[in-house]
Amino acid sequence: MKILIVVPYLSVAEFIKTIIQEQDDKEWEYEILVNIGVRSIVSQDIKSDVVIARGVTASALKRFLPNTPVVDLLISGYDILRSVKECLVRFQDRKIGIVGSYDMICGAKSIESIMDIELVTVEVNNEDDAELSIAKLKEDGIQTVIGGVMSSDIARRIGMNSLFIESGREGVYFALQEAKRVAAVRRQEQERTEQFRAILNYSDEGIIAVDTQGKINLMNMAAIHITSLDNEVIGRNVRDLLPQLDLGKVLVTGKSEIGEVQTVGDQQIAINTVPILIAGETVGVVATFKPVGAIQELEGKIREKIHNRGHVAKLKFEDILGSSKAIKETISVAREFSQVNSNVLIVGETGTGKEVFAQSIHNGSNRCKGPFVAVNCAALPENLLESELFGYVEGAFTGASRGGKFGLFELAHRGTILLDEVSEISPKMQGRLLRVLQEREIMRLGGDRVIPIDVRIIAATNKDLYDLVKQGVFREDLYYRLDILQLSIPALRERGEDIMLLMNHFYKRYCIKNKKECKKMNQEAKAKLLQYSWLGNVRELKNIAERLAVLSKNSCVDLQEVEAVLPNREKAAKDAIRSNGSLDRECLYRALEETNYHYGKAAAKLGISRTTLWKRLKQFDEIK
């Protein structure tokens, strides 16, 4: 940074250079101007961070350079004392006039008692004042004047004794230190001002600040653009220009207004208004606002990024394989469902492709550009499922992520959420889910802010929900909220003509994937596959196809190889009973799953009575 020093004589300049050299501060640039008038300095437009001058010159520069700090090279008491002593020696005059700026003459009178002399001080700030004041001193009988260069020259010109007050080392040192401090502070203030200006002008939010009278004292470019006002708004009352914003309400109440929506011109804006408080008193208001359309556009970009994080449906109706009447009718119904926004309940046995249909419905809907979020309700414990679905705020519970977390319902905004195995949701969670369906809003765990959501819900289950309602384990009101449009996925055994079509498709895929030879399948092998019950449906068929691709050793896939990869469930269940002497939970659950939770069929499969099955289930808390 640069310091400009204005001095009256070359000898003073040399003296100051010596002090600067002693300080050896290379971070600063110095320029010294000798015997140059104030108007010359201003006309030359000399650039510097701070100016050092003294006396009347300093006072004049402060008026002519309002944007540049001017530091006074002060005349200390020691400087005046030295000058008075020299006058006594040189002129033997004990009545002396001291002429200069206030800073120069301040405290000079105290020297009278010390040196037994009479001192008359006169404050002057320009040449005209100095001429009259010094002439008046001469009329009053004063023959000797001490002052700056201008005062000394005037006194000499009208026949008076004069002495120029020299600045001492300590005065120069303190002036240099003060100049550096002032320049550094000013530079920091300029940097902060530029940062503030950049924030204001490059913010895409409109910003308006008003004082206690409602007069605008700040308005950024975004605000001018959004409101279509001109640049000449500073000092005008906001009530006259933008009465819709109602900033006066916050001025009166001193309370913030957050998230209000107002209409300005032909667009809606979302506005936050907060008071400016000093010592608890409202001294103004700041309003920030943004067009609702811009917020929606930004939200769309955020949703697009969510797509890139994996919340996207990849499958379409064209990906569903099958030529049977049953599957074609199901696809036709699902296409109809995709054209509306009603909730869908997809019912089907394990492995029938419920998520495939859910993704296809989403991709066939007007929400296809929004996120598709799938959650398996049976895979997570209740507390974890709750935090995943609804999110949480920071500090909601031990281990909560810093800053909180978005819930899956929030991530699915403007899209679809699939609640797979919805029958496994606990009664507490059923209550929270019902509220989401009714109010279309959620609240994060530990939070107190209601968040509106626009989400289509597709629920999927392999159980009879109405039967669970009758048993009292599933809420009836929730059931009717979910079961608006019901889609039943046919089991694979109900679409027998699709079995070999699917088998050939997946067998070929897994042969290619595992770099195996794709062999033909003889008629006996095909007949066995067609006769098989396929309790695991398409998922099980895919597993069998992969086993055949990996394990087949013969020249063609024959009956023996098919039988080798097909499970014998009935034998496995009975062997478990004989070996354990009782049924474990896994056996019960597997039998129920394979019979689509038909208790009579499951009991027959296990070789026990229906009553025994119910007793075992109660032991394992499968029913309440």
From TrEMBL:
Gene Ontology BP term (one): regulation of DNA-templated transcription
Residue ranges constituting the Sigma-54 factor interaction domain according to the UniProt record: 320-550
Key word Transcription present: yes
Keywords associated with the record: ATP-binding, Nucleotide-binding, Transcription, Transcription regulation
GO molecular function terms listed in the Swiss-Prot or TrEMBL record: ATP binding; phosphorelay response regulator activity; sequence-specific DNA binding
Annotated CDD domains: AAA, PAS
Gene3D superfamilies: 1.10.8.60, 3.40.50.2300, Homeodomain-like, P-loop containing nucleotide triphosphate hydrolases, PAS domain, PrpR receptor domain-like
Keyword Nucleotide-binding appears in the UniProt entry: yes
Pfam families: AAA_lid_14, HTH_8, PAS, PrpR_N, Sigma54_activat
Top-level taxonomic group: Bacteria
Designated name of the protein: PAS sensor protein
Organism: Pelosinus fermentans B4
